[in-house]
Amino acid sequence: MFWGGVPTLHLDTLARLPxxxxxxxxxxxxxxQEKLDEVQLIDVRAAHEWEMGRIPGAVHLPxxxxxxxxxxxxxxxxxxxxxxxxxxSSMATEALVAEGFEVFKLTEGIVGWAEEGxxxxxxxxxxxxxxEAAAILHAEKRLPPGSPAA
Length: 150
Prior knowledge:
This protein is α/β, with parallel strands linked by helices. The chain has one domain (about 1-140): Rhodanese-like domain (Oxidized Rhodanese, domain 1, 3-Layer(aba) Sandwich). It is about 30% helix and about 15% strand. The chain has a 5-stranded parallel β-sheet with strand order 3-7-6-4-5. Strands 1-2 form a two-stranded antiparallel ribbon.
């Protein structure tokens, strides 16, 4: 688990992890809002998604970088992860639970947060399409050229 005093997480085996016996532990939007000062809120989405809009107080730690940057997460404080709708945060939640973190995923991700009218940063922020969805929209010519696709 530790290499040179820095915790490491082996996400290369993430796809081979057996499914958790139950769904990943979740926290509601209301619970998150009440406990925002007590938890580490981590956005595991891609950079273009983060730039378009994020939950205030979140830290950006993309899923692809989680194994390299797990040492940035305080194991003594609860962690709440979110992505667009829940798939990436579910994977990250399972990986961090396996490493001994107290971790939850945000129910319905940032989509649910925004649909409830909760605030996003920067002011006027929006929920971006995921890379896969953006690529599909580009292919269908529903996004303007030059819009982020990955």
